[in-house]
């Protein structure tokens, strides 16, 4: 399952991903961001579960299973560029802003902003084609939700 998706992600001219593969790509990107600082916390994993459950209308068990698949996918995937390209090709601009907001939720889930996570966010937003102002607004919304 992962080998086929990884092959499609690394193809020179990848086709847009089917919905199930786009879910894996998004989840793997969330996991990659959570692991960026070398401390994949329980709070970050739980936040990823909530994001996946909400975004894809899953119950908590299905979200946990999807995250587990995403963790495997992230560990096997070659680079972040492939995930972002797959997501950019698969979703509208408004949905990509929502992806950035979800990524910020993961960054902020453990209550700390780490330099590696910030660096990855500075790289990912432009790769998804999301403007700096829209990324900043997404970060503010994620921070407001985290404090409420």
TrEMBL record:
Domain Co-chaperone DjlA N-terminal, first and last residues per copy: 23-140
Family matches, as SUPFAM superfamilies: TerB-like
CDD domains from the UniProt entry: terB_like_2
One Pfam family cited in the UniProt record for this chain: TerB
Domain of life: Bacteria
Descriptive protein name: Co-chaperone DjlA N-terminal domain-containing protein
Protein's organism: Limimaricola hongkongensis DSM 17492
Phylogenetic placement of the source organism: Bacteria, Pseudomonadati, Pseudomonadota, Alphaproteobacteria, Rhodobacterales
